[in-house]
Amino acid sequence: MGRYAADMGKREPTDRRKVYVRIADELRADIAAGRHQVGEPFPSIATLRERFGVAGATIERALTVLREEGLIMSRQGSPSVVIARPGDEEAGDAPHEPSQEFTLIWNQLQEIREHLRQQNLRLDELEERTKDL
């Protein structure tokens, strides 16, 4: 059981903030401390679920907070990426739109990843067909 799931049965003074808010705060602090660098992939939902011991929906809500603050960017089928640190000029309380240059590079990276995935599938097929030769 993760530390956030375990909080429910304690008699000590409790943090009354919602769990996803506490997780978002901790992840924001991780970004601020440089544990997750701008431009690098953010940990997966599965990794964060394991770290915090909570449901995926709770992690999703925490990530939504970070997206709305302009700290991370997510795209369907791809890992979230850190795009700003707390306190950076570009990060703020309003939803953040990445620069055109970042979006262009991000899209190119996704195309490259797809090409590599297709090449790996072809190599696997070729290896399967030639393994008995």
TrEMBL record:
SUPFAM superfamilies: Winged helix' DNA-binding domain (SSF46785). The keyword Cell membrane does not apply. Keywords: DNA-binding, Transcription, Transcription regulation. Coiled coil: none annotated. The keyword Cytoplasm does not apply. GO terms for molecular function: DNA binding; DNA-binding transcription factor activity. The lineage of its organism: Bacteria, Bacillati, Actinomycetota, Actinomycetes, Streptosporangiales. Residues 17-85 form the HTH gntR-type domain. One of its GO terms (biological process) is negative regulation of DNA-templated transcription. This is Regulatory protein, gntR family.
